[in-house]
UniProtKB/TrEMBL annotation:
The protein's name: EAL domain-containing protein
Superkingdom of origin: Bacteria
Taxonomic source organism: Pseudoalteromonas obscura
UniProt domain EAL: residue ranges: 23-274
């Protein structure tokens, strides 16, 4: 039994060591990812009745590690403080791209960019957005920032002030993943939000799940009374789309319309959408 215990301990430390090694390999690679041009931005349509937008999403491909999911590398980038540079880069890419699409279509259009709570805490997001909008000559109305409840839960006057300035500029503010996390309805009152994104967790069992149907219907009617534009995330089936439209949801996003794709592929979607 003693022998066994030792083996077990040895196995455990080896596993921990392997884990630490993998993690430090990831961190090292992540430090170089931006400079090595390993990051790219993909775009996913956000489809409304006669309006189209898109969400910009980060992708990372590393030769040794392969394709790493943002679910894994974003939290580490936040810890390492790399998210500031990455966030600036995504914002710039997305705004420049949106400007180019605006020129092509002459139609109302918006791009939605995720901003992490670390950015709001450690960076002047207002100054950054002002600079990027100026450099890309994208109208503020064509940009939406997606923030999670973590940003709002911070309860900081500074963040509240930044959000207010962004709204005054005309930038849209969406609360992301609504209904998960530590949802407080108070956020909807306190912060100058313009959009609400219902998390996929509430969409995935539609149209069969009666409880989800009730929740979604309540969220949509509440949001519309608060003048918030509602976007449903993770829409995968025509039946989900039909139900959401029936409930008065303004926009839908999900694999049903398209997976996140390259700028060129999204552009094809955009041009097709326009002429439908
Ligand atoms: P998110 O902001 O909630 O983004 C939506 C996620 O849902 C994306 O995952 C998207 O690919 C996925 N999705 C879209 N439609 C469907 C669908 O119909 N079914 C399913 N199952 N999934 C769908 P992705 O791209 O892997 O991103 C994961 C998360 O990583 C994002 O969640 C966001 O929190 C974070 N992230 C991605 N890019 C950025 C970024 O540029 N900055 C920051 N701060 N976070 C980012
Ligand atoms: Ca998002
Ligand atoms: Ca989301
Ligand atoms: Ca989510």
């Amino acid at each position: 039994a003693k022998e066994n215990g030792r083996n077990c301990f040895q196995f455990f430390t080896t596993a921990m060591h392997e884990h630490a090694k993998a993690r430090s390999q990831l961190e090292g690679a992540l430090h170089r990812a931006l400079a090595n041009q390993e990051l790219r931005v993909v775009y996913q349509p956000i489809v409304g009745d006669n309006r189209l937008g898109c969400e910009a999403l980060l992708r990372w491909h590393n030769d040794a590690l392969g394709e790493v999911s943002p679910v894994d590398f974003i939290p580490i980038s936040e810890e390492l403080g790399l998210i500031m540079a990455m966030g600036e880069w995504v914002l710039y890419q997305a705004c420049a791209q949106a400007r180019a699409w605006l020129n092509k279509t002459q139609q109302p259009f918006f791009v939605s960019v995720n901003v992490s709570s670390t950015q709001f805490k450690r960076q002047n997001v207002v100054a950054l957005v002002e600079k990027v909008l100026r450099d890309t000559s994208l109208p503020a109305e064509c940009l939406t920032l997606e923030i999670t409840e973590t940003v709002l839960a911070d309860n900081s006057d500074d963040i509240e002030r930044q959000l207010e300035q962004l709204r005054v500029m005309g930038v849209g503010l969406a609360i992301d993943d609504f209904g998960t996390g530590y949802s407080s309805l108070g956020y909807l009152k306190r912060f100058p939000l313009s959009k609400l994104k219902i998390d996929r967790a509430f969409i995935k069992d539609l149209p069969d799940d009666e409880e989800d149907k009730t929740l979604i219907s309540a969220i949509i009617s509440m949001a519309s009374k608060l003048n918030l534009i509602v976007i449903a995330e993770g829409v995968e089936t025509p039946a989900q789309l039909a139900l959401l439209q029936q409930l008065g949801c303004d926009y839908t996003q999900g694999y049903l319309h398209s997976k996140p794709s390259s700028a060129a592929e999204f552009e094809a979607f955009l041009l097709k959408y326009q002429t439908r």
